[in-house]
């Protein structure tokens, strides 16, 4: 016990020394300016938080502009005033946000543009290729319509770079097919704007025109669902969008359920955003342009992709739950060195007490098992004496030595007779023993517990081990043969039980190895 306690004490002392003497690393404050609040940006924010778990030196501050240029400018100004170390900005509108981004750059604050761009300077950009997304969605719609028909495009917020880029890519594809008639409508990324755009189209072109639309491409899934909710599209009209978020209301499920005919994954990858930020802050190599991988989601791919996304979300949630539990502990003690010292001392004492209690429990268990074994050996010796007397007297058991034995000894003799008789049967159990004695399992347990302070299971096990020890000492059989002879189905398990009981490994010679 002293050796184990000394090792634990030394380990904890070293840990405490590191905690008390180590200097805290610099904490980087990163301001995150989101242009709006939605499930896509919520997902990004959660990924950013998760990515900071192993990075104790990073602190995140979030702000959302709710699609308001003026509010976003004010929020970025506040980040600059507070002196954050780096800014991650998703601009609401490129032109409006450019001046304040330029101001941050002049102040020496690195700026990462995520998802959307501005017209001015920046340190790095990370996001998907929106032109390519628009181009691939255009090719998909063209294939689905047979390169002809009526197509409606609902664009995102006017002035935002993803809306402009996706429209440009979509037009590059559709322009190759003169049989497709395209109508472009203006939205603002919200579900309501998708519904409003279709209803405005109905007022201008009439209900009949809306009913004959072949395809609606909305630049995100929310606007696509808004267009569907307008209730004026024909039954044959198909819809597709962009984002393909996982979750019960995400585009991936909408495609899997055939509500949308397709969507396009627009990745968030908060982990890569934070990695880029740390590379910039720590003056490590980084790329100015960082394009994220994305993919088209169709009904044949959606179920598998949804399963993968759900599994990733579940794992992320587990990580977040675990971090919350750990954070509650570490935050309390991070700056409380004296309290931590007190806690470590108490921990050492508790560990010492636990080791002491554990060893005492093991000792009491071994002593109890020893007492049980001695008691069982006593009954086994009486049983052997009875058998010898019966053989000498050549009398039936009922008329021999049993007449001079007490009731408990007679009962135990019956138990040993049954066990010895079925010794080699590895399937012999307490239930079978009780059945052969004409008792229920509960009755057998209570009576055996009263007589021996042990259980029938222990009696069977100890009897097997005692008989095994006797056979090993007699010689003529190896360990495996003995283990099967006394009812163990596995020699390795027999050796384990034998060592636990006798304190040494079984050997056929009758000697033992320590």
Automatic annotation (TrEMBL):
Q: Give the superkingdom in one word.
A: Bacteria
Provide the protein's localization: Cell envelope
Q: Which family does it belong to?
A: Belongs to the bacterial solute-binding protein 2 family.
Domain HTH araC/xylS-type intervals: 413-512
Name the chain's protein: HTH araC/xylS-type domain-containing protein
Q: Which residues cross the membrane?
A: 338-358
List the Gene3D superfamilies hit by this protein, alphabetically.
3.40.50.2300, Homeodomain-like
Q: Name one GO molecular function term.
A: DNA-binding transcription factor activity
Grouped into one coarse class, the protein's main location is: other
Which Pfam families does this one have? HTH_18, Peripla_BP_4
Provide this UniProt record's keywords sorted from A to Z: Membrane, Signal, Transcription, Transcription regulation, Transmembrane, Transmembrane helix
- GO CC annotation: what is one? cell envelope
